[in-house]
Amino acid sequence: MTHALARRGAAEPGRSPGKAALFLLPALLLLGALVVYPLVYSLFRSFFDASGDEFVGVGNYVEAFTDPRTLVAFRNNVVWVVVAPAAVTCLGLIFAVLTERIRWATAFRLILFMPMAISLFASGIIFRLVYEEDPGRGVVNAALVGVHDVFSSPSPYPGARPREGFEATEEGYLCTATVSPGDAVLLPLVGYSPQEVPADARPVPQPKPGVGEVRGAVWLDVSAGGGPGRIDPAERGLPGVEVEVLRAGAVVATTMTGGDGRFTFADLAPGEYSVRLPPDNFTLPFRGLTWLGPALVTPVIISSWIWIMTGFAITFIAAGLSAIPRDALEAARVDGATEWQVFKRVTVPLLAPVLLTVFVTLVINVLKIFELVFVIAPGSVQEEANVLALQMWQVSFGAGGDQGVGSALAITLFLLVAPAMLYNIRKFRRERS
């Protein structure tokens, strides 16, 4: 009777190995076509030259790792692996713990998880615009410029400069001709748009010499009517320009131009003086930082990836938090432990397996990073932001067109990813058993 039931049970559809294999066959075919075959072919192709006809052995591997671009890419991958997964795991842990007890925890986690719903390519386009150098387009520089201008007033005439007859120094534009009390000095400026001149600026009159005074005028010399360096009736003075007068290299008096651009230095002792326009009059406005330049492009891309992947870490760690026995946490609190001690000595040790799994998964993701670097980094600095996956693509399909070296890089990247993948697979199997 028992044997008959056993035979009948063995014939049940859910326990038939043949039918199970039949259902698995489509997945196995896809796995073979999309994973196994490319891997085997890349390994085979990595031992042949660019044309695929001549066997070169490990020559492609030697060429790949003697290329300075590959060394830069490998260095950047090390930076990514050291910084990015640890930062995302820490942020995910902090946010998951902090939001555990609040009502809107689910909404908060949903908002942080939303970037995961966007492809990395689309996210790269977004961050390319966010870090645009032009404050009119880049959000980050727009915020920086706004904060900067609150604490530091912009110069009145950025980019303007005097005509000939001035020497550019670190302290400003110094007039090469000396003046004495009773003289009148003309200070024509160029390099500034007439449309940007203040609306209250008035036409500049010809300054007249005064006894014991140095008088002058500062105006935008753009009209051709009076000739270069001469005041034309249609030209307007520049109000609010700071002017200094020096004697023996030391500043003895400072004044500001009026609404018509004129200024006066009174009560000067007899002697020769120099006139100078300080650089604060013409300093170009703060335009933010060059985020996508060679120095900052890699940290910027890493920060973008952290923003995208933090939601992934929060989701997994929050699931691990929900599985922690609450009596262990309450027992620690009853024993007098502070929240920090509970977090450090109870929560983190119990979450260690989850944190390690999240970290290893992020390491795998980081080693294969490609889209963000390709999209965010401008072509002029892509070499400084290069990573192994991007280098593999450039060598195989870019200007190089050498799929032998590209396959060698692909196999190298696989060997770097494989240990982390095997660790995760073994861990999942142990948990299931």
Question: What's the layout of helices and strands?
Answer:
Layout: H1 2-10, H2 17-45, H3 59-66, H4 68-98, H5 105-113, H6 120-130, H7 139-151, E1 161-162, E2 166-169, E3 172-175, E4 184-190, E5 214-220, E6 242-247, E7 250-256, E8 262-265, E9 274-277, H8 297-323, H9 326-334, H10 339-367, H11 371-376, H12 388-397, H13 403-432
Parallel strand pairs: 4-5
Antiparallel strand pairs: 1-4, 2-3, 3-9, 5-8, 6-7, 6-9
Helix pairs in contact: 2-13, 3-13, 4-8, 4-10, 5-8, 8-10, 9-10, 10-13, 12-13
Written account of the structure:
- This protein is of the alpha+beta class and 433 residues long.
- The chain has two domains: 185 residues, MetI-like fold (Orthogonal Bundle); 121 residues, Immunoglobulin-like.
- The chain is 51% helix and 10% strand.
- The longest helix is centred in the N-terminal third of the chain and has 31 residues.
- About 2% of the residues have low confidence.
